[in-house]
Amino acid sequence: MSTDASLRTDILIVGGGVGGVAAALAALRRGRSVTVTEESDWLGGQLTSQAVPPDEHPWIEQFGCTRSYRAFRDGVRDYYRTWYPLTAAAHRQADLNPGLGRVSRLCHEPRVALSVIEGMLAPYRSAGTLRILTGHRPVAAHTDGDRVGAVTVAGRDGVERTVEASYVLDATELGDLLPLAGVEHGIGFEAQSETGEPSAPSEAQPLNQQAFSWVFAVEHLEGEDHTIDRPDQYGFWRDYQPEFWPDRLLGLTAPDPRTLEPLTRTFVPHAPAGPVVADQSKDPGDRDLWLFRRILAREQYEPGFVASDITVVNWPMIDYLPGPLAGVSDDERAKHLEGARQLSLSMLYWLQTEAPRPDGGAGWPGLRLRPDVMGTTDGLAMAPYIRESRRIKAHTTVVEQDLSMTVRGDAGAVRYPDSVGIGMYRIDLHPSTGGDNYIDVPSSPFQIPLGALLPIRVRNLIAAAKNLGTTHITNGCYRLHPVEWNIGEAAGALAAHCLVNSLTPEQVRGDARRLEGFQSELVADGFELAWPEVKGY
After folding, report:
1. Vertex 326, ends 325 and 330: CA angle to 5°?
2. What does the record list as coiled-coil region(s) (predicted)?
């Protein structure tokens, strides 16, 4: 592999997912030069390459996110209003939900999210302050004591590029920069003796991590046969049943995440449905799998525009449980990635050939993959959906007892004097590679402490995604789209603020006057640092 000459930038953001995009926007608005590297071909992570519609709290239309995240959401809706033949009624909807999915009030196609993100970044490309290197993964970090001076990324073109920067933000999906830079971090389930968390095990379980999933999108064309070839591992997955699962994984019966009781979902393409409730505080939305993560609903568009809805398969049945992606060898990681792909293809094949139909028959052969929607050739998402990352050993670690409603009750979540944002989601942990069932319990609306973005030792690396100072448990509510956006945006703002004022992150956090000045800057930029009076769920 050849090596390119070193590149120089004010702020290097390794990882162009949700947090990485938000970090770049924050730093660019403050006049800094930014380089973003991203392993896949698309920026946007969960929103695009992983094809996961936003998981959001029920107040998102009024408050509870940053101004720029709201601009992204507005941009998605404006894109559909501008370019799609919406019905007159849909066009008038202020809270337009293009897919009428039940998981969120804004279910949309990944390509639309990509277009909006690219539009938000376009002015800075033109100004020459933003450089984006897609198809690049980090392979080395160059450190000097407690500082990271540069990171080398390898491109699919066979060229390695070394990028020097004053500040380095890790916004990768798995915290890939942390081991390369020698940043102290943890993975998996921490021991109760370390965190004091009521739900933690007695001993640490580093390889016990939330399942990841390889998402795909399908439509249904009645009377046609689009059955895929039988996947190579179909025999294995057809018979696979985790010990805590009520039936085989390939099926419509799975635990209810909140009660753990067996729950049989429905899956009937285009079945008549009542009003869509997209409020997870009232209804998890996962009972009807066709509607659950639907990203294009034909009833929202002029008659004849589309022959079918498009729905995303991101269900409990494709959560990959045999092993994790962090803390394992490259060969083991590759095996699990391929296993997850085979599981998803096996789920599709089962739906096409064996899934029960209301008429007593079996299979929906009219289900067709939409590779054009995913931006791939095989129809699966461009990248796997990652729920859990490596996490820095931070100045502040958010633990279960800081925000669990069971522990905190009416007191609400712990309030942090160094808040740089807010978020809300249930403590939602999917089944894990260590054999745990769901942990899905109520949480209180929470804050994002600045101390959770800062490693205990390394001075110029900032966490900008799901790799901040949470635990295996609290990662379950800090991992969702608007929270990750806020984390990344705060990280980018902090790096720029430190450069402008010749300060270190520790100096900003450690001095009340400087911290107040930085927080005032965030508020002026559209951050919300505290919740109004709302209760969790």
Report:
1. 65
2. none
Give the amino acid at 405.
Answer: M
Q: What is the pLDDT of residues 70-122, one digit of tens each?
A: 999 999 999 999 999 999 999 999 999 999 999 999 999 999 999 999 999 99
Other C-beta atoms closer than 10 Å to the C-beta of 520 total 11
pTM of whole model > 0.85? yes
Within 10 angstroms of residue 452's Cβ, the number of other Cβ atoms is 25
Nearest to 257, CA basis, from 493, 428, 485, 129: 428
Alpha-carbon distances of 164 from 142, 155, 168, 325, 440, rounded to whole Å = 9, 16, 9, 28, 42
Query: First vs last Cα of the chain: how many Å apart?
Result: 52
Give per-residue pLDDT as tens, 368-425. 999 999 999 999 999 999 999 999 999 999 999 999 999 999 999 999 999 999 999 9
Instruction: Answer for the pair 204, 194: CB distance below 8 angstroms, yes or no.
Output: yes
Tokens 């929906």 appear where? 364
462 bridge partner residues:
169
Name the percent of the chain in helix, strand, coil, to the closest 5. Answer: 30, 20, 50
Q: Radius of gyration (Cα) for the chain, nearest Å?
A: 22
CB 173 within 8 A of CB 345: no
